[in-house]
Design goal:
It comes from Tropicibacter naphthalenivorans. The protein is mainly β. It has 1 helix and 7 strands, in the order αβββββββ.
């Protein structure tokens, strides 16, 4: 019968205590290739943020020069221009009697 628990043995002398700091890894090649710097259009113009909705009722989000974001559909006016059509990645506006395509950056 055991009356007391055995004493633990000490740490072996062959164990080396080393502290190593994790190194920050440089950006990998796929990350570099997937990151594309695209200049934004001038702040005095309209910016198409995206299109969504159904084929029968598409809608778009457009940022105005002042930073306000409007949700528009065909026939609406945005920035003084009428929305003629909404495509998958573009909006067609009537600018001074001319159909002008506003595409996503």
């Amino acid at each position: 019968m055991l009356i007391s628990s055995p004493r633990p043995s000490g740490r072996p002398q062959t164990v080396v205590n080393r502290v190593t700091l994790a190194k920050a890894e440089p950006q990998s090649k796929p990350e570099q290739l997937a990151t594309e710097q695209v200049p934004l259009p001038p702040r005095n113009g309209l910016l198409l943020l995206g299109t969504f909705g159904t084929d029968s009722a598409p809608r778009a989000l457009i940022r105005l020069p002042g930073g306000k974001i409007d949700e528009v559909s065909k026939g609406d006016k945005v920035g003084g221009h009428q929305v003629l059509a909404i495509e998958a990645a573009a909006v067609v506006l009537n600018v001074g009697g001319t159909a002008t395509r506003l595409a996503m950056p």
